[in-house]
User: Fold this.
Amino acid sequence: MNLKRVLVVIIGIICHFGTSAQKSQDAWCGTTELDKINKSRDPNYEIFRNAQDRAVLNGSYDLKTGGLIQIPVVVHVIYRLDAQNISDEQIQSQIDALNKDYRANNWDTMLVPSVWKHLIADCEIEFVLANRDVNGKIHSGITRTQTSVVDICKLGGDVYYNSIKGGHDIWDRNSYLNFWVCELEGSLYGFSTLPGAAKESDGIVIDWESFGTIGTAKYPSDKGRTCTHEVGHWLNLKHIFGTSVCGDDMVPDTPLQEKENYGCPSFPKISSMCGNGPDGDMFMNYMDYTQDKCMYMFTKGQKTRMLSTLLGARASLASSKGYNGVNSVVRPSFSIGPNPANLALIVNSDQAEEINTIRLFSISGQEVYSSAGRIPKDSHSIDLRDVDNGIYILGISTPSGTYSEKIIVQHD
Ligand SMILES: [Zn+2]
Assistant:
């Protein structure tokens, strides 16, 4: 074998392993696989699922009666190593991220290409840690279980939701959205049951390094969007790419796309096989496989499908006893980003809401920017070139109150 041939073989081997490593690294959602397993276990499951799809397509639910729905959440932390016993703050950061994404309050909606901006949905769904357990007793909405079982959260396994085997029993799925946070095998970040699954396991499993936005959350799944994606499944959304080439997600306002997208594509990314030009794939949709920082929208059609679930298979959540109190997220009429920010921070204001002042403070309270007296009507840019790296508080004062948000300044 001459040298050139040897090189070709070596490069071939590198490319082969390179590709499979990349593929397995990015195939991070196990929901389709779990769906297949559940179908093989229970013939009635598939019958129920098909009936649900027909009901949504037939418009069987009166969505006008919906309004804002608040879902009580319980998080079961199951840890083998101390580091996996994630903090209360990290858990709250995930709840906060879900609330931003499901109310379209996330700053990065401003990155949605203009052709799809009119499709961005405020899903009118909010999440709150339960403050009552299944017996009506006051509770934090967080359970913690130490285990010695390796691979406790195996996809299709039955240990994580079984207290006797070392996991933690589900809290009644009719009153709570159950998360199990634990160590997932291989490249998986998370998986969810779809409506109709067995009542003992009906919830979402997320890897301890893909939950929340602080602490152990690790790039590229460090913006809480594994949960946003999996909750979409739990509310009956399919992947935007369907289950076959140019597959259908049964949502009318999402384009067909040839297959899943990984990483962070550039717009437009056209699937010529499905004829989806000139705009191409909606790869920034939460139900694709892109990185956390590159997914930032649900469509109105996806909202319809999720609300149908909350009026159908998961209707009992509306009368859950898992949470007492009012904790509605105030939806500001402006978006702020990017966050982290480098050269500039942009505040986009709704025409309806007037802004009096925008101020930026360091964590020690020192004002580093004030806009007083010069607020343009709809978009305002704050020059950050002379602001040091660090954490800051942005305060926006409006006639109806003051809104503040934590901003990270990070110069490249
Ligand atoms: Zn998925």
